[in-house]
Amino acid sequence: MKKIEVIVTPTGETTVQTSGYKGKSCQDATKQLEQALGVVTDDKKLPEFYASEGVGQQARQ
Amino acid sequence: MSHVVTVKCELRDLAAIEAACKRLGWTFKRDQKSFEWFGEWVGDYNGPDAAYLATDIKPEDYGKCDHAIGVPGAKYEIGLIAKQGKFVPVFDNWISGGLKGLTADNGLGGFVQAYGVEKAKIELTRKGLRPLETTRPDGSIVLTAMAG
Question: φ and ψ at A28, to 5 degrees?
């Protein structure tokens, strides 16, 4: 399941995180949201980011 | 998890500013061109966040704004000044004005948090998503949207 979470601390620090996405699709899903909120100060890519969107399909062939 | 992005919120959207005010019980005064303050700059505050140091707002322009915000129980108001696509909040922090508790360190007394939540809701809804709001014990607000 693809999920987008936005966490805003009491002081206003805002974090946008995604789960369930493979590859760069997560960036496409949240880029507009991030730009609308303000200025990106940090961007961490997690292992899932580097998984190819086609990997699952290839494994089933 | 795919990626984690940290964003410094900028006040750009009047609809989100208005929603943030409503959320906090504050009053958004759209198009009000002046805000309540001491009324005369006496040069008694020169901290790094003083408007004339942190922005290019000149002391002779103090009190002028594009929109204003009223805070319950405060005599003075917050002015919003349009600068380069965003709104810069300015206010007089003299204790008698009632806004002394608002600082950059506390996100203007929760206003920046309220803005971030309302702006994210607007954007997620625009994408056809239905964000669910929860609050963590530390006061952080979480919006969760399932995207299929």
Answer: -60, -35
CA B8 to chain centre: 13
Contacts of B128 in chain A (CB under 8 A): none
Min distance A59 CA to chain B CA atoms (Å): 20
Question: Using alpha carbons only, what angle is made at residue B94 by residues B90 and B99, rounded to the nearest 5 degrees?
Answer: 60
DSSP SS3 for A23: coil
Q: Report the predicted TM-score, pTM, of the whole model to 2 decimal places.
A: 0.89
Binary contact (B107, A29; C-beta < 8 A): no
Instruction: Give just the sign of the alpha carbon dihedral B16, B21, B22, B28.
Output: negative
DSSP H helices in B6-86: 14-24, 51-54
- Residue A45 pLDDT level (bands cut at 50, 70, 90): confident
- B36-61 pLDDT tens trace: 999 988 877 777 777 777 778 888 89
